[in-house]
Amino acid sequence: MKKLLLTGYEPFLKFKTNPTQAAVESLEGKVIGDYKIIGRVYPVAFKEINSLIEQDIEVVEPDAVLSLGLASGISSVHLERIAINTIDGREDNTGFKPNGEKIYENGADGLFSKLPLKQLETALLNENIPVNISNSAGTYLCNNLMYSELYYLQQKKLDIPAGFVHVPPSHEIGIAQRVPSWPQEDITRAVHIIIENLQSN
Fold this sequence. Notes:
two-stranded antiparallel ribbon, 6 helices, about 25% strand
C-alpha cells in the first residue's frame, strides 16, 4: 500500500481552531484511492517547519505529500501553483516575526507544485466543490512549508506528487471573524476528493 503524508496546522493568531487540523485528524489512517493516509499537524513556527517536514519525509517515506493551510477570506479551495523562497508577514505562534528572509539561501526563487492541478480542479468541480488554481501561496507559514517540502524532495531527487492546498475557514471561525466559511465536513470532503484523484504512477 502506498503512503500519503497529509499535513495540517494547529490554530494560530486570532483563530481558535484550524480546519486543516480537523481534516488531517479525520483522515488519518484511512485508505483513500491509492494511498494510506499518514497525518501530521504542525506548529505555526517558522524555525521548526523545515526540519519537521524533512524529518517526516525521511521517516514516512511517502509516495505523495499533500499539505493543507487555512486562508481567511477565501471562499473556495485554492490549489497552489508556486511557492517562493521568502518569508514575511505576521508573527508566528512563538513570537518570531519574519522580515523577508530566504527559506534556503541557495534555493531557487520559486518552486512549482508537483500536483496535477488541472486534474484536481476538474475533479473538485465535478463534485460541486468551489475551487481555483492560485498563483500565490503568500509569504507566511503555508508558503514556507510548500517551498520546504518541494526543495527537500528536489534535493533528494524524489519525483513524487507534492504540493499545497489552502482551504477556507470553517463556520466556527467564520462566525467569530465575520468571514466567508464552509462546514468542516465540506472542507474534509474536498481534501478526500483531492486524494482520491491523486493517482500515483
